[in-house]
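Exercise 7. Given the components listed, write out the predicted structure of the assembled complex. Treat all entries as one system.
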Amino acid sequence: MKKKETVALDSTCSKELMAATDTLTILNGKWKIQIIATLNYSGPLRFMDLQRLIKGIGSKMLSRELQDLETNLLVKRTVLNTRPMTVEYELSPHGKSLERIINSMRLWGKAHRKKIAARN
Amino acid sequence: MKKKETVALDSTCSKELMAATDTLTILNGKWKIQIIATLNYSGPLRFMDLQRLIKGIGSKMLSRELQDLETNLLVKRTVLNTRPMTVEYELSPHGKSLERIINSMRLWGKAHRKKIAARN
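Answer.
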């Protein structure tokens, strides 16, 4: 590990670590990672298509989660000039930049499951 | 990005992504990242020293968080043969393996703050 990446416990430590907790908070819950991964894989999607691809999510929940992601500049919402009006959602470049972290978390999570299973 | 690291939306997708959510859940809350980072930086610590280094954490909370981390095999608890008895906590190799993810989250969180600040 390069030195600049060390989790340093100097005077700025608490603030530094809070930035990590920010990321945690932004991804929090059951659905955000799934929404991000789906948009990352499929490209721009209409609300109904997104809901169809994410099994088990209700429309109220999806709507709220998308709003959160939009507020955090991770998802871009575009109203299309169609009749009836349609809305499309896509990942912003900032949203795409989460791919690497989500993948690391996925791989670590898989290793963790093996570890826990081996103990039992 | 190498192909094997892609967040694939095939039949195993939901299960794969749940592994990422597992990681999220394990790190969840205000304190776990701070405890992991402190033990990672300082090496083995007694309970009181750990509490002193993590500003604002109460002993009940610290105790509960350490128990969670122990259950998840991230922290090792050693009872030392001293009088009075003392207990030492240290990061397991499995716990140490979170360093890279926490650092990625920290760096992303910092970039995110800048992004949000620039919007306002």
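Discussion: Chain A is about 60% helix and 10% strand. Residues 99-119 of chain A form the longest helix (21 residues).
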